[in-house]
Fold this sequence. Notes:
Keywords: Oxidoreductase, Peroxidase
Oligomer: single chain
Organism: Danxiaibacter flavus
InterPro entries: AhpD-like (IPR029032), AhpD_core (IPR004675), CMD-like (IPR003779), Uncharacterised_peroxidase-rel (IPR010195)
Largest sheet: none
Domain Carboxymuconolactone decarboxylase-like: 45-109
Structural class: mainly alpha
Protein name: Peroxidase-related enzyme
Amino acid sequence: MPRIEALKPEYVPADSKPTLDVFTKNIGFTPNMMATFATSPIAFNAWAAFFGIMTKALDVKTRDSIGLAVSEVNGCNYCLTVHSYTAKHMAKLPDDEIILARKGNATDPKRGAAVQFARKVIETRGKISDADFAAVRDAGYSDANIIEIVGLVAMYSLTNFINNMADPETDFPPVTPAGSI
Length: 181
């Protein structure tokens, strides 16, 4: 049972409504996570601005793979359903790549380096080793790209934490529990 209920459209704060309407139009429905997050116009609009700008970082397959890895580490089942759905339908990742991303890897070596690095960043709270830093750089990522990876980790962690705390009802197709993959 959700700790914070997803808002019905008539109860969405006026300052959250334009942002929520854009997501609803783009997705085709209003995800419970967003209807919950919209409770705070300040937090929701700040996240949405961050999300919007971070869609320009890296490529969609790498972004979704990072989202999967971070959500797995943070134990956010809601986000795992969202990222599994978007990875499959928007990034066009096959099921085996989605599972690899959840485990912190990818068949593409460059994307794999980014996902492994992102996983290390979340697991170590950013206190990565010199070897981890060298590996992502050696894979072809610039310093700017590396900072973008950390930005994605932070952005996905925010939604993970909100969803783990609020426990919204899942409205995306379920995924296999982590222990089973």
